[in-house]
Amino acid sequence: LTELLSVNAARRSIIAHFSPVAVSTVPLTQALNRIIASDIASSTDLPPFDNSSMDGYAVYSADTLLASQASPVSLPVVLDIPAGRPDILPIQPGQAARIMTGAPLPLGANAVVPVENTDQYRSHSASPLPASVKIFSPAKPGDYLRPRGMDLKAGQTVLPQGHKLRPVDLGLLASLGLANLAVYQHPKVALLSTGDELLEPDQPLAPGKIHDSNAYMLAGLIEQIGCEVIRLGISRDDPEDLTTRLNRALDLKADLIISSAGVSVGTYDFVKGVIEQHGQIDFWRVNMRPGKPLAFGNYRGVPIIGLPGNPASAFVGFMVFAAPVLRRLAGYAKVEHTSLRAILDQGIESDGRETYIRGFIERRGDRFFARLAGHQGSGNLYALTLSNALLIVPSEVKSLSPGDELDAWTLTSE
Ligand code: AMP
Ligand code: MG
After folding, report:
1. What percent of the chain has a predicted confidence (pLDDT) above 70?
2. 30 CB-near residues (< 8 Å, 6+ apart)
3. Do the beta carbons of residue 261 and residue 195 sit within 8 Å?
4. Residue 96 and residue 132: Cα distance in Å, rounded?
5. Judging by beta carbons within 10 Å of its beta carbon (0-12, 13-18, 19+), is residue 391 exposed, middle or buried?
6. What angle, 0 to 180 degrees and rounded to 10, lies between the N-to-C axes of helices 7-15 and 323-330?
7. Would the pLDDT of 320 be above 50?
8. Distance of CA 176 to the CA centre of its chain
9. Ligand 2 centroid to 393 CA: how many Å?
10. Which residue has the higher pLDDT, 267 or 35?
11. Were 58 and a residue from 109, 154, 384, 408 both cysteine, which residue would form a disulfide, CB within 3.0 to 4.6 Å?
12. Which band of pLDDT confidence, cut at 50, 70 and 90, is reported for residue 13?
């Protein structure tokens, strides 16, 4: 492949290979952070009935028009309506009903006078029902009422397909009486590190060796999106070891394999060879930095994305190519990263490729300002931990000055 692809074209053509995984039904107790698999419409008006927003007295507002502290209006109290009362009884003009917060409004009443505005302000729900109540201030129609359907109407779409459920959404679904709902399953992502130099974190460093950091960083990123990680471990630079581990991804029904390293010029023939024996792989030339050739193909039918080995490059490759694929598999409506515009506090030199820079953004007033975070060498993971954004210098731009704007991806969480 010699064609130089734009980042966007490469990303779009990779995403096009994927569609969301299967759907299953889960109880509300297990639905946090899940992606809903169909639009959810309300089965009811909320609130479901007219009710009081205060402890007080339900009245005909016209009866209270002349009420004041000096000359209160006295009304007979004919009903006691606690919260949860199932029937709705009427009151007549000239009557009042004691009512509690959340209790159904009696028929005929069109306002509630809070208990604080009556002579009963020291009483509480357990006090005996007074024969009459003195009202000290006029109520307008609708005062302290929560009309049926005020929050939402039956049939209204409340959450769209592809939405990730937040705690408030769970509360809303519960208020609609939805105990179970259809969500996308967790995609299974097999994760492989490759390299003779790699050690597990619990192995002591030895000459020429480094610890496998990519597996831990990438697993975290994969889990943050809501996918299940299948850890294939570290493959030695050896075709047999690689084959064994890739086969495990098949056995465990992975939806995608993500590997890091082993696809640079030095070693790529060997990984390429193994994959091509049982599938197909392309090394794409993408017009970006960092970014060695991006590998994309399939191993015995399971799609595989090969990321660079250098941790910062693996991170950027993941964010640019793998994350949108995972969001697509996971059923997210929105697969692209959210970006914001930031103003540079310092100048940046680039080489004309689309460049992803580890940066630090901060809000000042209503705008975001950006600077570089730490050393940009692609092996430097610590510098990456000091950053909170990727700053994107567009292709064909070779230098940006302080005050110029660019796109930034925040790195906090999903
Ligand atoms: P390679 O693509 O195999 O040439 O690797 C490029 C660089 O990334 C080398 O310096 C590797 O040691 C390093 N590297 C590869 N895999 C990992 C990993 N899993 N964790 C940390 N560094 C890695
Ligand atoms: Mg290697």
Report:
1. 97
2. none
3. yes
4. 8
5. buried
6. 30
7. yes
8. 22
9. 28
10. 35
11. 109
12. very high
Beta strand residue intervals within 15-66, DSSP E: 23-27, 40-41, 51-52, 56-59
Residue type, 279: G
Adjacency order of strands within the sheet including 56-59: 111-114, 56-59, 96-99, 73-81, 132-135
Would you say 337 and 225 are in contact if contact means Cβ atoms under 8 Å apart? no
Distance CA 61, CA 281 (A): 76
What CA dihedral angle connects 166, 170, 176 and 182, to 10 degrees?
Answer: 90
Which amino acid would we find at residue 82? P
> What per-residue string of b and e applies to 162-200 under the rule 16 or more CB within 10 Å gives b?
bbbbeeebbebbebbebeebebbbbbbbbbbbbbeebee
Helix (H) or strand (E) holding 223: helix 214-225
**Do residues 51 and 102 touch, judged by C-beta distance below 8 A?**
yes
Q: Residues 122-132: pLDDT tens digits? A: 876 678 999 99
The DSSP call for residue 106 is: P
For 364, the 3-state DSSP assignment is: strand
Instruction: Return the axis-axis angle of helices 239-251 and 268-278, rounded to nearest 10°.
Output: 40
Q: Ligand 2 center to residue 57 CA distance, Å?
A: 77
Which of the listed residues 310, 381, 382, 384 should we mutate to test ligand 1's pocket, taking the one with most ligand atoms within 8 A of CB?
310
Residues near 55 by Cβ (< 8 Å), separated by ≥ 6?
Answer: 99, 100, 101, 114, 115, 125
Q: Cα separation of 191 and 196, whole Å?
A: 17
- Read off the DSSP letter of residue 190: E
The string of pLDDT tens digits covering residues 171-191 is 999 999 999 999 999 999 999
SS3 category, 3: coil
Residue 193 bridge partners (DSSP): 234, 260
Nearest residue to 59 (alpha-carbon basis) of 37, 38, 35, 81:
81
Side chain identity, residue 36: I
Does the model's pTM come out above 0.85? Answer: yes
Q: Is 380 in the pocket of ligand 1 (CB under 6 A)?
A: no
Distance from C-alpha of 371 to C-alpha of 139, rounded to nearest angstrom? 58
